[in-house]
Amino acid sequence: MTSANGEDDYRATVRRLIDRQPQHLDLLQRVCRAVTENLSAFGTGVCVMTADGTLGVSAASDEAIGRTEELQFVLGEGPCIDAFAARRPVLAANLADAANYRWPVYAPAAHDNGVRAVFAFPLQVGAARLGVMDIFRDRVGPLTDTELRMAFTFADVTVEVLLDTQEKNLTSNSTGLLDVGHRAELFQAQGMVMMQLGVSIAEALLRMRAYAYAENRRLEDVARDVVNRTLRLDGPKNEDPELPKGTA
What we know:
alpha+beta; Beta-Lactamase; globular
């Protein structure tokens, strides 16, 4: 099992890799570029999706990958859609195999665009789903254990990026600071969510932030509803998913 310090080191490394990307790019584009460069990928796409699976916003490492990414929503099938619905990674180490039974329309189209393998990772916290990160390769073969671990870390950091961006947008017309009363209410809400879900205090805050993102609400408003007992965040724990063995 990875130690807390080891996990923090991975996250810090991933954030540095993202920060090294050209600053004129959109933040999600920088994520896609960093994933592509450091996981020997053909390209990377990030899809931000609504609760019903509708594409909201997407970003890609380049325009060609962007078209391959959005093609899934045009055709109504693909690894991104499956990973979002199942809340689990979809690892297709050989896209040609998937064409026979899983994505009979999308797989040949992606293959024509140079894609030979694709790995889709849900962007989620507990019951709150934000979207999916797709990693495309131009050769057949699974991710190594190290690459898989790095991919999960990139997905986790992408979730944090989305939550941070949402909170900044919602507080852009205010000071962005919580007064003493709101901080106390937030801490109380964290404790209540921690007890509801049986998670750590840090995980409780992450669950609240994810819920606020999914509902397009301010964190302080979510905290107030939790404290007033008009909102509960019961849902599946944010445990590390069992790693599939390279299945399509």
